[in-house]
Structure formats: C-alpha cells, structure tokens
Amino acid sequence: MAWLKKLAARLRAVWDGDAVHQDIDEELQIHIRMRTQENIERGMSPDDARRDAEERFGNTGRIRDMGWDVRGGGWLETFWQDVRYGARMLRKHPGFSLVAVVTLALGIGANTAIFSIVNGVLLRPLPYPEPDQLDTVFQQNSSMNRFGISVADFQGMEKEYAKIGSVAAFTHRAVTLTGGERPEQIKATFATAEFFKTLGVSPASGRTFVPGEDRPDTDPAVVISHGFWQRHLAGNTGIIGQRLTLDGIGYSVIGIMPPDFIAPASTIPEVWPILQLQMPKRRGPFTLRVIARRNNGVSEQQSREELQRIARGVFTQWSHTFPDANATYVSMPLKQALVGDIGKTLLVLLGAVGCVLLLASVNVANLLLARASTRQQEIAIRAALGAGRLRLVRQLFTESLLLAVLGGAARLLLAVWGVDMLLALSPGTIPRMDQVKVDGFVLGFAALGTFLSCLVFGLVPALYNVNPDLGEPLKGGGRGSAEVPSRRRLRDLLVIAEFALALPLLVGAGLMINSFMRLQQVKPGFEPDHLLTVRLPLPALKYQKEEQAANFHKEMIR
Question: Which residues of the chain, if any, have pLDDT below 50?
Fold first, then answer.
C-alpha cells in the first residue's frame, strides 16, 4: 500500500500545491527552531543562535525545491505545464490539429472495430463451463470428406463414450408454431437429453432435459429461449408445464434459458424440442451433429482413441447397411469447429488495418516534422534559456500525446459505430458474431494501439526536432532557416515508408474489387432471372416416413 500513499501525495502536490509548499516551509522552520534551541542551550544569544542555525542549515530555497521534487510536485507540475502549453499550441493551429486527430481516429478506430470481431470470434472463450473440454464429433473417410452422424452411430457412441465423458446429438430445423393468431415458422434445435448437461448450462426457470426423456415413449418436452418467452409468450411466468404446438405435435414447456445463453452453432434457435430417436434400421442418413464433453483428466488424444475404438464396433455391427472401411469418428475442439477457417481471414484483415494504423502514424509523424520547421527558433531560444534536450523532447512528446488522446477519444465513437456497421453487414456465415462487442479487453487493446502509435509519430519526430546545434536556428532567424539534413532524411524515409505501406493496400484493394467484379460476371450455367428458391418444411406428425415426404414433393412439382 506504500505506492498508493506515494501516488496520493504526488497527486496532492499537483492539485493542492500551495498546501504542500506550506507543509515544506513548516518542516524547514521546525528544523531551524530545533537547531536554534540547541545553540541557546550552549550559551548563544537568541539572535546569534537563530543566525547560526540558518547559516548551518544552508540554502532554504534550494532545500525547499528539493523537498518539492521528492514529493512528486516537480515533474508532475512540469508535466501539467507541458499539457497546458501543448493544448494552447493545438488550439493555435486548429487545421493541423483536426487533420492529425481525424487521421489517428480513422486508423485506431478501424483497428479497434476489427479487433472487436477478432476478439469475439477467435479470442473469447466459449460461454460454457470448462470450454476446453468440449469437442465436436463427426465422421471422416478422407482428409477432405467429413460428414455428420446417424442415429445408429450416435446410439452406439452414447453408450460407450459414457466411460470418459458424455455426448449429445442435435439437429437444426424450422418448425411451424401454431396455437396463436396465425401460424409462424421459427428456428428450432432438436436435442437429445444430455444436450444441456454436456454444455454445462442451467435454465433461468424450470429445468432442462433429464436422462431417458429422449425415448420415443415419453411425453415430448421443449426448452424455450428467453427471447421467445418474451416475444411470443409476453414473459408469462406460468408457462412452465403448459404446451406448445410445433409442427402439429404438442410439447410440454419444461424450462426457460437465460438471456445470455448462446447455442453452440451459427444458427440461433428460439426453442429446443427434445429429439426422440427411433430405433434405426440402418446407418444413415447422417444428419446429426454431436458434441462431447471429456471428463476431467481425459485428453483430446485419449478421446480420439476411444472414438476410433467405438467406431470399429459400430461399423462392424452395421456393416451390412453401410460398409465403409475407411471411415472413422473424429473429434476436434468445439471452438475450432465453430470458427472454422474464418480465423485466417480475420487475422489477415487485422494485419491490413494494422498497416492502415501504421500508415496513419507515419503520416502524422511527417506532419509533425513539417510543422517543426516553423518552431526551430522557439526550441533554440528555450534551450538557450536553460531547457535541457530531454526537457524539450518531453514537451514535444506531450503535444503528440495530446493528439493521441484526442484521436483515441474520437476512435471510440468510430469503433462503436464501425462494430455496429460490421455486424449489420456481416454475412450469416461468420460464426460467433453475437459475441462481438466493445468491452474492456478491446478498450485495452485500443489504448495500447494509441500508445504505440504515439511512440511512432510522437517520440521519433520529437527526438529529431531537438537540434543539438542551437546556433544554426538562431542565426537563420527561424522560419527562413535551412532544414537540418538529418530531419530532411527522416522526412524522406517517412515518405518512402508511406508509399511502401500504401502500395500493398491499394494493390490488395484493387485485386479484391477486380475479383468481386469477376464474380458478378460468372455464369452459373442457367438463367437466374425470375427464379426463386423455396424451402418447405413438412410437419413431422403428418409426414413421419420418408416415402410420404417424397410423394408430397413429387405431387408439388408436377
């Protein structure tokens, strides 16, 4: 806690400097009085004792300044002076200040917006307990051919995998909700009894599925989302135990999920009906998605080996219906499966906007160097009056820091607006977009980006602007004096860096536009004008067999 006391003392030195000076003076007087009293006790007269005490004590003004510096008032006071002077200089040149702030705001704002997506999609852990123990399971018969799980596969897997964890199956489907003013199609995720337990989540109200509830001879149950409960049921607290009619089947409402619950898929369902699995006659169709949770201490490699062992047994049992000697069960971390290959694209995009920020920083650094040519006489005079090189660098860097702070404040607005725009324009193929937001971690990244950009455009020009040779600016008269060769070389290097950064960005943007134009001109092999695609989900109660659904579609397209 000592550092807190020291920080409080230094802040007090800035905001209440008079009181601190008074404390120092009182402390000095106490020491002088003590020395005076000692002299009197030795036989000196009061006047001689006082005079001797002051002489032996030394220069009180210098000691007062040393005490002021020790208490933190010195450097904080000069820093506050630098801030006020820098603010006056920025107000004096509003055009330069506006250009610099807007340039930085665009660069940092773009980085913050893209990093918000990278953080939400790639970096943020899945919103479940111990998410690293969650895997997704699928079938694979070659390095490129992956497909889902059948009912026969899952039933064999569910029984055997229980030795090292739990598994659950689910599938997405649109269902028709009836019983209200008019039928409405909603998104549903049909899940087996272990679905919520495997994820490790609990409902906000009611309960989730219990073991055995996915058998065909049980009463169908459904868990609803918080949004569905609010929109369709007006937040009715007595909905637990009542029934919803989905595709003509009555489901008993058993639970309501919390508002922050996120399903492990890109599809955002409104309801989770129980997936009641009939006894299969063959392996297939492979429409189920499976998630697994490994028990504590079970590694990914152990899980893969167990799944391969289970696959050999299941495939042997059902070899007469679907022989495939090359296939097996494969698992991968659930987060990796959800994100897919989009991570590489997002990282490339983050690198591109990082180049934009670097380009903006170099641009502002060049502006500061150009502006410094009009301030050489001012800097030389301040140095001649006693300001050290470090003191001058600190003054110039403080002005750059003010620009960075103003640009950082503006970038918050741009970042929030940019994230909202990206969320509105993003295709549905990007996973976990519901996790994207500007949070404390993103703001910390933005603050780090602001500081690093300030180092690039602030510190380097400040070091070069402080010319060790004070005579040349004073002789030249300031404005008309020749530019220092080292500064000219730095400006040339910055211009080269700007071209080096801008050229790949322009080429990349041009290639993207060209690719987009070419995609617009690709002929699909038919005339797409006046053509529509139609999805027509059939009620499961009426069309329980595949033959019934096939006959319906044949009749429809006649």
Answer: 73, 478-481
